[in-house]
Design brief:
mainly alpha; 74% helix
């Protein structure tokens, strides 16, 4: 999720389609998968695999629509530009601010996940302490603006994939009896074992699966760098096949090793799965890899969300002060940095006030804001591209899956606050649009 700028900053010149696919894999794998998948498993059990398959299908449909719009009309603003072109300035404004809001929430979600990972070693220390430390480090990275850190983003992406592959190898060895005796759940054989909480459990877990695929927006933004713009759909298909295989295989192994009720939202499912085996190195190595990967995505999200507010300001969709650069030594205008820093402070305060459920609350809100933008992408595609019958079927399926993911948050008490928070963001954005519409009409008349 979230990690956008860092993931793509090293790509200069023209991209091959396979390069864009690998960048997408590195950018999308994040704390939403390393930690958020535990919440999904807890909610729905082994049927979490179905949730991830449905999320992969919807992700493919959304990216396919975005890629086709990018191939026909490459735009630097990507989904924001298409929303504006399809429905007017209000849509571009809404899409940009919804994306900004989702990135702010994603940054808070990553900050909380990093704190939970670190508390694996320091159990007695409150979350807000670690959140404060990582926030300061993230701010320092942005203020320094080191190119060396940006180059390391690709190394961090490899770290994420390597950590998952390490789990897959060890879990496979465990299942085949090559490791010392430990937990071994086995294959679920009845419907009640596959769906321990019924269809409602699967429905409620959908959003967390969607959140693990968040990040396709950056691939849409980067399609303008492809050598052949027509390769954008192929890059997305390849990325999703690779990502889907990694996700499904690793989750399947985790579920086969331990009962679903042993998973909990404060620990990665991969550490939970192997903690009963005599592998003293694994939890520490894997946890360290997740912290490295999580910090890279959080810092890159800081870049991304700050860049977005500057871009909105330059386009006249945010106060002009956010794009005024008075101190040339800073990578971003100071007001934009302060706004992003304020968001981090809010996350720290929330981790102090709500240490038990904060990750689920923020993750739910972040996931919802992300797929609200997916909704914008699909309805823009409907307006801008001449559709085949198959395109219309895919769009209907995508919109239905988005509706299911959003409505499923009503079923879980832990996810409802996140839903209400996301709706609060939408209400504020809508009120601002109502206030600005008259000004926009005057500007259009004057031009």
């Amino acid at each position: 999720m979230k990690k956008k700028i860092g993931c793509g900053s090293q790509v200069e010149g023209k991209l091959k389609w396979w390069q864009l696919s690998l960048i997408g894999v590195g950018c999308i794998i994040g704390t939403g998968y390393f930690l958020g998948s535990s919440i999904a498993i807890k909610a729905t059990g082994p049927s979490v695999l179905i949730a991830f398959l449905l999320a992969a299908v919807c992700t493919f449909i959304v990216f396919d629509a975005l890629a086709k719009m990018s191939a026909q009309d490459p735009q630097k603003g990507s989904f924001r530009s298409y929303a504006k072109k399809a429905y007017g300035r209000w849509a571009g404004f809404s899409s940009g601010w919804v994306y900004w809001s989702s990135e702010m929430l994603i940054m808070g979600s990553q900050l909380t996940a990093l704190s939970l990972f670190t508390r694996f070693w320091f159990d007695g220390i409150p979350l807000w302490v670690f959140a404060s430390i990582y926030a300061v480090l993230g701010i320092a990275v942005v203020l320094i603006g080191t190119k060396g850190f940006e180059r390391m983003e690709n190394v961090f992406a490899v770290t994420k994939v390597a950590a998952i592959l390490m789990f897959i190898v060890l879990a496979s060895l465990a299942l085949f009896g090559c490791l010392d005796e430990g937990a071994k759940q086995g294959m679920p054989r009845t419907m009640s074992e596959v769906f321990p909480h019924g269809f409602l459990g699967l429905w409620g877990a959908l959003l967390y699966a969607f959140y693990a695929f968040g990040g396709i927006e950056v691939m849409g933004i980067m399609t303008v760098r492809l050598e052949n713009k027509e390769d954008a759909p192929k890059a997305g298909r390849s990325m999703l096949i690779l990502l889907g295989v990694i996700y499904i295989v690793s989750l399947s192994l985790a579920i086969l090793i331990v009962p679903f009720h042993d998973f909990h939202g404060n620990q990665s499912p991969f550490i939970t799965a192997l903690e009963t085996y005599h592998l003293p190195f694994f939890p520490h190595v894997f946890n360290g890899a997740m912290i490295i990967a999580g910090f890279s995505t959080m810092s890159a999200s800081f870049f991304s969300v700050t860049t977005m507010i500057v871009t909105l300001s330059e386009d006249g969709d945010a106060p002009a002060l956010f794009s005024k650069q008075k101190k040339k030594k800073l990578q971003f205008p100071l007001p934009a940095l302060l706004l992003t820093t304020a968001g981090l402070i809010v996350s720290i305060v929330l981790s102090l006030l709500l240490p038990g459920k904060i990750y689920e609350y923020i993750t739910t809100a972040a996931g919802l804001m992300l797929i609200y933008n997916w909704f914008f992408i699909l309805i823009s595609f409907h307006r801008l591209i001449k559709q085949t019958v198959w395109d219309k079927v895919k769009q209907a399926v995508g919109l239905l899956l988005i509706l299911l993911a959003v409505s499923g948050t009503l079923l879980e008490s832990a996810s409802r606050p996140g839903l209400f928070a996301s709706l609060g963001f939408l209400i504020v954005i809508s009120l601002v649009i109502l206030k600005l519409r008259h000004k926009w009409k005057e500007e259009e008349a004057a031009s």
